[in-house]
Every structure is written in C-alpha cells, then in structure tokens.
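input
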Amino acid sequence: MPGQSPSTVELEFTRQHEQEHAQTCRQPAPRRLRLVFWRDEQLVRNALKAAGEPGLVLDVACGAGRFWPVLAEHANRVILAADPSPQMLDHALAHHDEALLERVRTFPSSAFTLGLSANAVDCIFCLQLFLHVQASEHRLALLREFHRVSRDTVIVSVQIEGRLRTGQPPPRRLVDRARVEAEFIEAGFSVQWYQDFLPGFALKRVYVLRKTS
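output
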C-alpha cells in the first residue's frame, strides 16, 4: 500500500470490504467471528464513553453501517455516515431497519476530503479504514482532515506490534505503536484513552484522540 494515492487506498479498502461483507451475507458468521463482532462492539461502547458520549458523530468509511446500531444506542446521538462508495451506502440503507435509519444521515465522500466545515461534528469515528492504512503519510493525511472536521475527539483503530502466537505470520497491517502515536501528536491530538482487543495479547487497539491545538 505505501506509494499508492489516497484514492487508490480507498478503492482497495472498498473492494476488500465489499468482498468480506458479501461473504458474510451469504452464510451465517462462524462462532469465532461472532465473538470478534461482540468484542468490537464492546470496544466501541467503551470508546464512546471515554469520548464523553458525543452527540454528533461522523462515521467515516462506514461501509454497510456495521456499527450504526451501537452508535445509535445513545438516545440523543445523531449519526452522519460517509463512504466513498455510493453502492455501499445504498446497501447499508437497504439492510437496516427504518427506526435506526431515522437517526442516520448518509453522504458519499472520500475520507481524505470530507466536504464538511471545520469543527462540524463532535466526534469522528473511523475504525475500519484507518486500520487498513499502512503508509504514514496517508494516516497523517486522514488525521489532519479529521482534526479539521472534528470539534473534540476522534476514534480510530490500528494493528500495533505485539505478541503473536508461535508460528503465526504477522499481519500486513502491523504498525509500530510509538510511530503511530507520534503521528497522533503531529496531527494535533493527544491520546485520551485506548483499549486492546485482548489486553496484552491481541494486536488491534482502539484509540480515543482529543484535539490539543
């Protein structure tokens, strides 16, 4: 992925995301994957609480709206949802119930140029795309755009270097913890909170970042 343009990064992410979602739709998720989904939702709830239960959240690169039900658990929360693929947005709107969709406003947009004014939302939520971005310059480009549009906080996830099971190949998306946390600071954020998927073992970490400048 390093060397690719931001638009190519999003196209590759969308292609992979569409394939994974189509496979999930064709057959029931195995028990292992259901446990992963449950833990992901738990992390999202914890992150939103650490961010102060923001009222206006922008879900960036939302895909099929996997986390909309969790985002909507806060009764007064308004959800904006952006994705570079209009087809994915149409799919998301067709696969959630009407009561939930009354809380969600969607629009097509690149994550790198969101097309919203400065300080437009309380919190930006970007778990899936940010996790897939390997190049430091692309992470910084995303973080700077998030800094511009968010009034207060940003929630992202990364795969950091950590312990692996014996014989397990390292994920391609693995990034150095110190490096990515330095990027947060360079983009104008401090680390408000973080939590690992499995503390002390699993590689995925969810961060809540707060604007400092």
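quick obs: The radius of gyration is 16 Å.
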